[in-house]
Automatic annotation (TrEMBL):
GO terms for cellular component: membrane. The chain crosses the membrane at residues 21-44, 56-75, 96-121, 133-155, 162-179, 185-204, 281-299, 305-325, 346-370, 376-394. The keyword Membrane applies. Keywords: Membrane, Transmembrane, Transmembrane helix. It comes from Halolactibacillus alkaliphilus. This is ABC transporter permease. The keyword Membrane applies. Pfam families: EcsB (PF05975).
Length: 402
């Protein structure tokens, strides 16, 4: 079998599949929101650098961030479930297929490497006026390549406990190496690099004593694709997505206990239960609320705080819209003797309640960070925006999906 041709076929199919959903993710209003976030972060970051405290641990922050990016090495091999049957007998002849996947994976991560190196550069020059940042970039690429090769080799190992402790140990050593370099501790830096090289060499030796675990490659690719589906599901319906459900008995009981046992409350009960148990909605919404709260706590400018707060309300609302059609593929829902208008009403009421909670949390954050008057003004602004989002924008979207 021609490994080059196989890689070309799989790679082309993967790009077409991803681009089909990417066009929904990077549509107009999301692109505008991302641009606004980038500009807001740039303004906050610039203000932070101008007032950089002398006690701020620049070396430690850089060491941790660099180490996290260096150890983050997702590898895309373009394998499929059927390969366990059809490719396993010829796996040794497909080295070119996997090597091309490795090259793609390494260069695909370049966006993250460029982003972190560009973001850290102003912080570095603000503290180390006489440093050589080009040499830091060189070291970063060398360490990244080391750990990338190790990540590929570790896919041969099946002991997940060993891999976990190995990653923790490598993170600690790598952070120590960066910290020693930034502090100009030359002897400790050399000792750390030697220790890191010995650890990686030992792990490589252990890994290559085992054959390539094709089932692990397939599982990793499936998990990575599933995470992409979850991102795409915030913007469009994804047929390939398998939903993870957790019982969350306490939260489910709390949300559904007040629902009256009536025919017209059928979808009210269903949507509340779905929100509480599905990771797609509760988990992502909670994370966005936390990120929004942290962002507002770091901003001391009124207008910028208002803009960031409204933006996060919008993002959370967008993320919750797919909840309306979450169960549409289940045929037994058609057996419900419930008016379709009750379904729309139940969803919009739940969305109103959830966004109201978000508004209150962000308002409290602004009150604590700025002033009581600023918080009250934001409460009015966010309340008007949330009402318009639910009963104008979301309502029109819901009617279009019916």
């Amino acid at each position: 079998m021609d490994s080059r041709q196989l890689f070309k076929i799989r790679f082309t199919a993967h790009i077409k599949h991803v681009m089909r959903y990417a066009q929904y993710i990077l549509n107009g209003h999301i692109a505008i929101a991302l641009i606004f976030l980038v500009v807001a972060f740039a303004v906050i970051y610039q203000q932070f650098l101008l007032d950089l405290p002398e006690a701020f641990p620049v070396s430690l922050v850089m060491s941790v961030l660099f180490s996290l990016v260096i150890l983050y090495n997702p590898i895309q091999t373009f394998t499929k479930q059927a390969d366990l049957v059809f490719l396993l007998p010829t796996i040794e002849s497909l080295k070119g297929f996997f090597y091309r996947g490795l090259v793609y994976s390494f260069f695909f991560q370049s966006y993250l490497m460029i982003l972190i190196l560009a973001a850290i550069s102003p912080l570095y020059h603000a503290r180390f006026t006489s440093g050589n940042y080009l040499f830091i970039i060189f070291l970063f690429l060398i360490f990244k390549l080391w750990h990338f090769i190790m990540s590929w080799a570790s896919l041969r190992l099946r002991d997940q406990t060993l891999l976990f402790y190995t990653k923790v140990g490598l993170f600690i050593v790598q952070t120590f190496v960066w910290y020693s370099y930034l502090k100009s501790w030359t002897i400790l830096f050399i000792i750390g690099v030697m220790g890191l090289f010995l650890i990686l060499s030992y792990l490589l030796h252990q890994a290559f004593d085992h054959s390539l675990a094709l089932d692990q490659l397939i599982m990793n690719d499936q998990h990575r694709l599933e995470r992409f589906y979850r991102l795409a599901s915030l913007f469009t319906d994804v047929r390939e997505l398998s939903t993870r459900v957790k019982k969350r008995q306490l939260l489910s009981r709390l949300l559904t206990s007040s629902v009256m046992i009536k025919q017209k409350e059928t979808f009210t009960y269903l949507y509340r239960l779905t929100f509480s148990r599905s990771e797609d909605y509760l988990g992502l919404s909670s994370r966005l609320v936390v990120i929004g709260g942290v962002a507002l706590a770091a901003i001391d400018q009124t207008l910028l705080s208002f803009g960031i707060g409204v933006l996060f309300i919008y993002l959370i609302g967008i993320q919750l819209l797919p909840l309306f059609s979450h169960h549409d593929t289940k045929l037994w829902l058609l057996l419900y003797p419930v008016n379709k208008q009750e379904k729309e009403r139940a969803f919009l009421q739940l969305l109103t309640a959830l966004l109201s909670i978000v508004v209150l949390v962000l308002t409290a954050t602004i009150m604590l960070r700025l002033t009581l008057l600023d918080g009250l003004l934001f409460l009015v602004l966010a309340g008007i925006f949330s009402y318009g989002f639910v009963w104008v924008y979301a309502k029109n979207k819901v009617k279009a999906r019916k």
